[in-house]
Amino acid sequence: MHAVDAVWPSKTTYKYANVNGKKIFYREAGTQHKQTIVLLHGYPSSSHSYRELIPLLSGRYHVIAPDYLGSGYSERPNPETQKYTFELLAQYVEGLLTTLKVKRYSLYIQDFGAPVGFRMLLNNPNKLDALIVQNGNAYLEGLTLLRQAFFKAANEDSSKAQQDKIYSFTSEQAIINKQYLRDVQSNPEVMSPDSWTHDLHFLQTKADRVIQVQLLQDYYNNLLDYPKWQAYLRKYQPPTLIVWGKNDPAFIAEGAKAYLKDVPNAELYLLDSGHFSVEEKPVEIAKYIIDFMNKLAQ
């Protein structure tokens, strides 16, 4: 490739926007006249998880990666006075895009990004150009019975023992060993310690951890909403790319295959990676996205 033909990254900028009176942090790269891709992060992370993917896309697209209310560098109202739900997170991401005058976008959803993203799509079904799914579950098939039971108990059991159990998932050792290193036992060097170090920086106080606990407690409501999300897919048939880490025991590969029931023309690629595939294989994922978007442009 000649240097003149190369597509060079655009500088990533780090900004805040006032959304409904709260400061929402976001990373932005690329020029605004290009197609917009919005990257929605999962638990327990932030837009920091896309630090390697953004430069790989920014030469071709306008990329926005927000930190949810209560996560990363965004403002974090006290969970004693502000109940954290996925509906709340979706409202603030929608508010950010409205503030930035983004009228249409492609949506990259991972983990918590799926319930945030699908709520956005139900609220504004015609704003989507394409859907990119990376270990973002929308089907019961994607959850083991044990995982389904955990979310149900988290939502319905208010006992102190259950609360303590959920709270323990936000500890330093749980974040490192049960989140980031869990799926890369045979190859831990692919996972940057920057990932969990950054996340743990924002889980220092009890209030920080309670925010994430409240979202884990709310997660069961997503399972109840799966039929609505699936109906959206069947009705609108959005162009869909699925890049799924098949080594993820939290959201198993059957959840990726289940999308094909409702969007049979979706492209599906099972990667030899885990829940945080964008940390393990950002270049591979970027290639799939660029190829997919190029086909849509033809």
From TrEMBL:
Return one GO MF term: epoxide hydrolase activity
User: Which Pfam family is one of this chain's hits?
Assistant: Abhydrolase_1
Q: Which UniProt keywords apply?
A: Hydrolase
Q: Which Gene3D superfamilies does the record associate with it?
A: alpha/beta hydrolase
AB hydrolase-1 domain residues: 36-282
Q: What is this protein called?
A: AB hydrolase-1 domain-containing protein
Q: What is the source species?
A: Pseudoalteromonas arctica A 37-1-2
